[in-house]
Amino acid sequence: MNNAVVHIGQSKLSLSTRPYIVAELSANHGNSLELALKTVSAAKSAGADAIKLQTYTADSITFNHKSEIFKINQGTVWDGEYLYDLYEKAHMPWEWHDPIFKLAKELGIDCFSSPFSPEAVDYLKKFNPPAFKIASFEITDIPLIKYAAKQNKPIIISTGIANENDIKLALDACHQVGNSEVILLKCTSAYPAPIDSLQLRLIPIMRKQFNTLVGLSDHSKGIIAPTIATSLNAVFIEKHFILDKSVGGPDAHFSLEPKEFKEMVDTVHKTFEALGPEVNSFPSTRPKSQFARSLFIVKDVKRGDCISQENIKSIRPSHGLHPKYYESILGKTFRQDLPAGTPLSKDHYSES
């Protein structure tokens, strides 16, 4: 598993590369193409590797019916709204994709999307996106996953509502069409997600259990979750991004503004650097340091003198014999005259 690699655009994702960071535009466009384009530019300036869109219409996700079963009541910021009305308000006009993809290319930032229907997959194909993202609530839509996976692009799958079998079915759908470039995202489908609901310890468990690279799709507030995920070898970090929360919108509550997103990017990068290269055991050799202890002669001695607590001592620097020999050499005799300040070595005393 340590050798697993997924390519997204020019980026190679693996356990030995720093996390790939995605700014999720989602519904944070304020129904303004100008605002959406400014958000793409701000995401690039904030250090994002990619901007991610969502490609759907209300009709491709739900049915326009005003009965109670279509009303949201899941303890979210959207409770009381009908599903159709929420998605009608939040969706991004499809004609915006072209200018957004063009701007992203000019800026040198990857751009891809979450399709919510086969028609959305077909529409996105003309932009040659570097990946497809399957949203959490779509993980049970096996026909959609299989169709997206057939396009021979990496597939990123959020697992917010998934159990073990859901994940296996989704992975099998990709593998059945010959697509093994898959990344699973640990995700908590709450908006915003409480910190104590994130269960980030599952990241390494998922990596081992499903034999895939694993990342994080985060709906919590702040930047602590991406930082912790990085320390657990998450290779992909997705966070909702908004130019200005005062614009409002369905996702504003759990999105980061540019300054905080930039702080997250910097913290994630520093966390990755602090982890260092992947290792399987603690180093057997100790780096040399002048400040380590060793045995020194601290009193002038003559040939034939006995080594004693008065004439040797464990002190800094590290040029003398290892202190582990201290007790075993007490009482042995010096072979030569030696001045105080001499680093002790085995050549200085007789073993008998």
Strand portion: 15-25%
Query: Span from first to last CA?
Result: 55 Å
Q: Whole-number radius of gyration?
A: 30 Å
CATH topology-level name of the largest domain: TIM Barrel
* Level-2 CATH architecture of the largest domain: Alpha-Beta Barrel
Count of helical stretches: 11
Principal-axis shape equals elongated
Question: Numbering strands along the chain, what is their spatial order in the largest sheet?
Answer: 5-4-3-10-9-8-7-6
For the sheet with most strands, the description reads: 8 strands, parallel
CATH superfamily of the largest domain: Aldolase class I
- Low-pLDDT runs of 5+ residues are none
Structurally, the number of domains stands at 2
Share of helix, binned: 25-40%
Overview of the structural elements:
This protein has 352 residues and is an alpha/beta fold. The protein folds into two domains: 6-56 and 91-275, TIM Barrel (Alpha-Beta Barrel), CATH 3.20.20.70; 290-352, Type Iii Antifreeze Protein Isoform Hplc 12, CATH 3.90.1210. Helix content is 30%, strand content 16%. The chain contains eleven helices and twelve strands. The chain has helices at 33-45, 58-61, 83-90, 97-107, 118-125, 142-149, 164-176, 202-210, 224-231, 258-275, 326-329, and strands at residues 6-8, 11-13, 20-24, 50-55, 110-115, 132-134, 155-158, 182-187, 213-218, 236-240, 294-297, 312-315. The protein has an eight-stranded parallel β-sheet with strand order 5-4-3-10-9-8-7-6. Strands 1-2 form a two-stranded antiparallel sheet. β1 and β2 (11-13) form a beta hairpin. The longest helix is centred in the C-terminal third of the chain and has 18 residues, at 258-275.
